[in-house]
Amino acid sequence: MQLRGLLLIVLVIGFEKSYSQSDSKLDPRIINGVEAPISRTKFQVSIRLKQHDRIFGRGHICGGSLIGPNKVLTAAHCLYNTDRKRYRKAKEFIVVMGTQNRFSRVNGTIVSDVTSIAYTNSFSLDTMRDDVGVMFLKTGLPANKTHLTVSPIVLSNSSVAPGTKCQVSGWGKTSQGLLSTDLMMTNVSIIQQGVCRTSYGNGIVEGMFCAGSLLGGTDSCQGDSGGPLVCNNELVGIVSWGNGCAQKGFPGVYSNVSYYRNWIDSRNASAPVDYSFGFLSLSFTLALGILFN
């Protein structure tokens, strides 16, 4: 299994090798991406480790999506430190938005510390179930002002029909094996759930779906994890995992935003540290974990 929360589409947003999540689960490969226009990716953020971003741009580990003035949606595994077997603390991250070049600060670029994070305690690196997380920013969008390069995206409320053409984006590794300097994007198609399960068997559980091409050649990959899958101008999926990158018969696997919508909407920066709840059609209870500074 490969984590993609650190990679993205055909292009792939990847960690620097020295502090990647887990080399055995990552396959740095990218295919057929194009530079992403600002007009279509104003919600895209770069999630970085503060200690590695002293050289601006080098700390990038994952993608994410701005879904409110100071709220970012990403993958749970992007928040987890696999070396230390624990979730990172909020103060270990910074989030950058409003730039296409990950090394450049431009007019409108916002660089923010993270005040708190939230994730489901039921998330597991073994199964990748419930691979969804939220980050709250210290510096969000200015109140009552239109920002030229940063804008939240609307969350999907319903499933998307198989065959729908969607876009995934990120700063992950390219086919040349290098992290992309510029934000890249590619088109992928929603895969019918039965076909998705044929590819991955019991690995596909509620809250997951596939997107990509069964012929291979385009996909999310290392460094794109946590990034957005957008269909019809709505956020439909979160880059999660897959068997390799862009391999024939193995499309990318995404966390389903509509499935987790109630959980996502209920997360806020002042939520209790720990409590249980149920949502949607889940027959089990999820516990919320939040880490503060």
Per DSSP E runs of 2 or more residues, the count of β-strands stands at: 19
Alpha plus pi helix count: 2
Task: Characterize the biggest β-sheet.
Answer: 6 strands, antiparallel, barrel
In the predicted model, the low-confidence regions spanning at least 5 consecutive residues are 5-30, 272-293
CATH topology of the largest domain: Thrombin, subunit H
- What's the CATH C level of the largest domain? Mainly Beta
Name the CATH superfamily classification of the largest domain. Trypsin-like serine proteases
The overall pLDDT, averaged over residues, is 80
Net shape:
globular
Distance between the termini: 32 Å
Order of helices and strands: EEEEEEEEEEEEEHEEEEHEE
Shape-level CATH architecture of the largest domain: Beta Barrel
> Strands of the biggest beta sheet: in what spatial order?
12-13-14-17-16-15
- Total domain units: 2
> What is the rounded Rg?
17 Å
- Approximate helicity band: under 10%
Which class of secondary structure composition applies to the elements?
A: mainly beta
Q: How much beta, percentage-wise?
A: 25-35%
Describe the overall structure.
Strand 6 and strand 7 (86-87) form a beta hairpin. This protein has 293 residues and is mostly beta strands. The model is unreliable at 5-30 and 272-293 (pLDDT under 50). The chain has two domains: 42-152 and 261-292, Beta Barrel (Thrombin, subunit H); 154-256, Trypsin-like serine proteases (Thrombin, subunit H), CATH 2.40.10.10. The two termini are 32 Å apart. The protein contains two helices and 19 strands.
